[in-house]
Amino acid sequence: MTPPATLIPALRAIVGEAHVLTEGDLTGYELDWRKRERGKSLAVVRPASTAQVAAVVQACAAAGVSIVPQGGNTGMVVGSTPDASGTQVVLSLTRMNAIRALDADNLTITAEAGCVLQNLQEACEKAGFLFPLSLASEGSCTIGGNLGTNAGGTQVVRFGNTR
Q1: Rounded to whole angstroms, how far apart are CA atoms 126 and 129?
Q2: How far is the CA of 126 from the CAs of 33, 76, 119, 132, 156, in angstroms?
Q3: Do 47 and 14 touch, CB atoms closer than 8 A?
Q4: Does pTM top 0.90 for this prediction?
Q5: What confidence tens digit (pLDDT) does each residue in 22-66 have?
Q6: Strand locations in 22-98, DSSP E?
Q7: Rounded to 5 degrees, what are φ and ψ at 101?
């Protein structure tokens, strides 16, 4: 199915012109971390809020265009890489990187999907807590991807996987 010509302008209206990438070097979004698989996206869309994510999903669904969610693109299973068709939209969540709250009384942290694991670890440490997930890519992987893949890391036997 060919997406309607109105999709890209609609996406730009939702997230802003600068955050819908269709030209130039998109290697960082289209090549998997191990450099084994390369896809081709229709566009890379970088929303900044959950409302923008919802609007992007609605626009893509209305156009019949599939979405490939992507955080730090550090996964080992090519799950965040588009296929070679050039018909998928990469939904990059890297702009959604805030730590919204750290509740010491309830031992909870609320973070956006694009929050880098290392930033989360540092915020917890600063508050006197340990966030035990530790990965080689902790400086670039995101908590959304960690949760989406049940990441284990070097402390998995002691603390369990991410859930």
Answers
A1: 7
A2: 30, 30, 11, 14, 22
A3: yes
A4: no
A5: 999 999 999 988 888 899 999 999 999 999 999 999 999 999 999
A6: 41-45, 67-70, 88-92
A7: -160, 145
